[in-house]
Every structure is written in C-alpha cells, then in structure tokens.
C-alpha cells in the first residue's frame, strides 16, 4: 500500500516504518525459520520471490505493512534499519463487500523481543493507524491454536474469540471499533509521534529507499 510509503510511527518501544527493499534480506533470513513458517502459516520463498512480495506489499491497495524497529536503537545511533528489525505488522483489506474491515497480523521474529510488550504496542499503533488513516471499523485476527501468547495478547486488546477451526487449528478473534473502543485506542497511542520516513533516514545519514 502506497498510503504509508513515507510514514514512520514512533512509540515508546517500537518504531514502525514502511517495508522497503532494504529490509528484504533480513526478512528473508527470518522466514527461513521453520518455527516462523509454522506460526505464520507461510512457506519459504527464494530471495527473488521475497523481493517480489515486498513490491506487492508496496503497490497493492488491499495490503498495508510496517516493519517493526527497536525504537531505542533506531535511528539515533546511526544504525541501519536492518540492524534494528524486530518483526512486522500487517493489515489485509480484502473484504470487497466491507472496505472498513481488516485482518491484522503481527510477527515478532526476533526471539529476544518476545514477551516484552513490543507486539502489544505495535498492534495498538497499527490499529490506530487503520482507524484514523484507513477508515477501519472492524478488526479480525486469525491465530494458530498453539500460539497462546498471541491469542492472550489480542484478548487483552479487547478482541473476542468468535470461532475455532479445528481443521486448520486456527482461532478467529474480532473487534468492532465502537466510539468507546476508538477513544480507548486513541488514548493508548496518544504518545505515538508521526514523522516522514525519508526525512528521518536522511537526517540520520541513511540512504534513500
């Protein structure tokens, strides 16, 4: 999605930046992990296929993705994005009958960042972006039954379990964004600062992407 191509969102723990070609080698390395393939229901891709997928994420109007960076390490220490990558968070806007509905996914690829609140903050930031910038009013998350930590996190964010698919061993959770939920979400993310991704990269001495 081109809507977020120059958007950087900085929270307390996490900075969200658009998925660019510079992130692909590290992302490709992550997705060679059998554990991550299982948790994300993904298959291993070649590096060239990964670049094609990145271009799809950039150009397709029904997909929105941000790469999660460690906010403390980026960009003040002049580190490249790839040295600070934690995971990614995605929205799929694939319901043609309801453009205000989105499926949300999150992946903490770096094991050392799990269980430390990075996933929670990134999910809240993405949901807030979806509500304010994309007009989303309904979120859905489909999570493998074995991923208890992710299921628990989404329930803490007010999602309700609506179905279990025993064939795919998958739990579906949903959140309807009422006025009350919208205000709660905005309150949870009022600390988030929005910046131009390109300006931040240039100021840090990084290359344009």
TrEMBL record:
Coiled coil: none annotated. This is Alpha/beta-tubulin-N-acetyltransferase 9. The keyword Metal-binding does not apply. Belongs to the acetyltransferase family. GNAT subfamily. GO terms for molecular function: tubulin N-terminal-methionine acetyltransferase activity. SUPFAM superfamilies: Acyl-CoA N-acyltransferases (Nat) (SSF55729). Keywords: Acyltransferase, Transferase. PANTHER family: ALPHA_BETA-TUBULIN-N-ACETYLTRANSFERASE 9 (PTHR13256:SF16), N-ACETYLTRANSFERASE 9 (PTHR13256). It comes from Callipepla squamata (Scaled quail). It comes from the Eukaryota. N-acetyltransferase that mediates the acetylation of the N-terminal residues of alpha- and beta-tubulin. Its EC number is 2.3.1.308. It catalyses: N-terminal L-methionyl-[tubulin] + acetyl-CoA = N-terminal N(alpha)-acetyl-L-methionyl-[tubulin] + CoA + H(+). It is an enzyme of class 2 (transferase). Residues 14-160 form the N-acetyltransferase domain. InterPro entries: Acyl_CoA_acyltransferase, GNAT_dom, NAT9-like.
